[in-house]
Specification:
By secondary structure, the chain is mainly α. The chain contains 12 helices and no strands. Its main location: membrane.
């Protein structure tokens, strides 16, 4: 990797900035989206129809982690692969079968790059979360960067094949999505994985999700400006930021970086499960 020391010193600033500006807010209006999807009003009974299932899903995901760290990690991997692919591929005008393939391919590329580009960093975090000593799997440890390249390259190749096969559907050029996937691949391979993920999460995933929400509101007869988006997201964003600040202070006080990062990793997975289901329902309704 290039400029390693500089990147390492800046990695958490990039992560905090991406979370603050768009990462946390993009998931903080699930309750607003659900109120439009299910015609929920402001009454207590209607609000409970959202919060009880949402919190129950969070509790169940947390319970899986408590009962088995490896089961929680596997479930998180499956959910994350689907969610990243789901959000990034939705805008492409492709047959459903091609979209399904590219959804898994895209999510697999992103998660593989995050995990395997710098295995020396991610391995202790995963080990702390799952209780599994992955460094004992020698072939995985020795070939992690090669694995990142191979699992990363599969997506541009599949994207090239499927977009060219359906090139008549594209208003501009079929190779734009291919170029997009190559840019992301290089963003991770020649960068610190935390910085690479922060840039991807802010500029591709969260921003793309905001545009999908904006389109959804438009089709529901409402507008969603940037100002309105942040205003709606403010209450739950504030709660999330308070929690992150608390984790940061503990880490600074006790120097428990691996434990804190793994805890953050688990908390994100707990929040992701209900969020994915809300997004899936929103996209289906929008179509």
């Amino acid at each position: 990797m290039l400029f390693t020391q500089t990147m390492v010193s800046l990695r958490y600033y990039f992560l905090a900035l991406s979370m603050l500006l768009i990462g946390i807010p993009h998931g903080a209006i699930d309750h607003i989206i659900s109120s439009r999807l299910y015609d929920l009003k402001g009454s207590i009974s209607d609000q409970l129809k959202f919060y009880i299932p949402y919190l129950l899903l969070m509790f169940l995901m947390a319970l899986v982690w408590i009962l088995s760290g490896i089961a929680g990690f596997i479930l998180f991997v499956i959910i994350t692969i689907y969610h990243f692919g789901q959000a990034d591929i939705e805008h492409l005008d492709l047959p459903d079968s091609s979209k399904r393939v590219l959804t898994i391919s895209r999510g697999l590329m992103i998660l593989s790059l995050v995990i395997f580009v710098d295995f020396n960093y991610t391995l202790p975090v995963i080990g702390e979360a799952t209780g599994v000593a992955l460094q004992e799997i020698e072939w995985l440890y020795n070939n992690s960067y090669l694995l990142a390249i191979l699992l990363g390259l599969q997506h541009p190749f599949l994207m090239s094949f499927l977009t060219y096969q359906n090139k008549e559907r594209f208003e501009l050029s079929w190779w734009y999505p291919v170029l997009d996937s190559i840019v992301i691949l290089f963003l991770f391979l020649f960068n610190d994985p935390i910085i690479g993920f922060s840039l991807y999460f802010a500029l591709w995933h969260s921003m793309g999700h905001f545009l999908e929400m904006k389109d959804f509101f438009n089709k529901m007869g409402e507008s969603l400006s940037v100002w309105k988006f942040y205003k709606l997201a403010l209450p739950f964003s504030s709660i999330s930021l308070f929690g992150l600040a608390f984790i940061y202070l503990i880490n600074n006080s006790f120097g428990l970086e691996e434990k804190m990062v793994s805890l953050l990793f688990i908390l994100i997975s707990v929040l992701t499960l209900p969020h994915v289901l809300v997004v899936e329902k929103m996209l289906k309704t929008k179509r």
